[in-house]
Design a protein that fits this description.
Elements (H helix, E strand, L loop, with lengths): L4 E6 L6 E6 L6 E8 L13 E2 L1 H11 L1
Antiparallel strand pairs: 1-2, 2-3, 3-4
C-alpha cells in the first residue's frame, strides 16, 4: 500500500492556489483542486471541485 502525496501549488501571476494529489507509487498527478481563485476572482466557479489534471490542461489550451 502506498500513501498519496498532496502539495499546494500557487500561480505567481494571478494568486490562484491548488491542492495537487499525486500517487505515492508513481508520482503521477491524480487530482487537482482549486483552493483559492485568482486575485481578481477568476475561477470562482471551480473552487473546491476536485478534478482530473486534464480538466485544467484543457482550460489552459482554450486560453492560447
Amino acid at each position: 500500500m502506498t500513501i498519496d502525496d498532496v502539495q499546494t501549488v500557487a500561480c505567481q501571476n494571478c494568486g490562484a492556489k491548488w491542492k495537487i494529489k499525486t500517487s505515492g507509487a508513481t508520482g503521477n498527478i491524480k487530482t487537482v483542486k482549486l483552493v483559492k481563485p485568482s486575485d481578481d476572482g477568476r475561477g470562482q466557479e471551480y473552487l473546491s471541485k476536485e478534478t482530473d489534471p486534464e480538466f485544467w490542461a484543457s482550460l489552459a489550451r482554450e486560453k492560447e
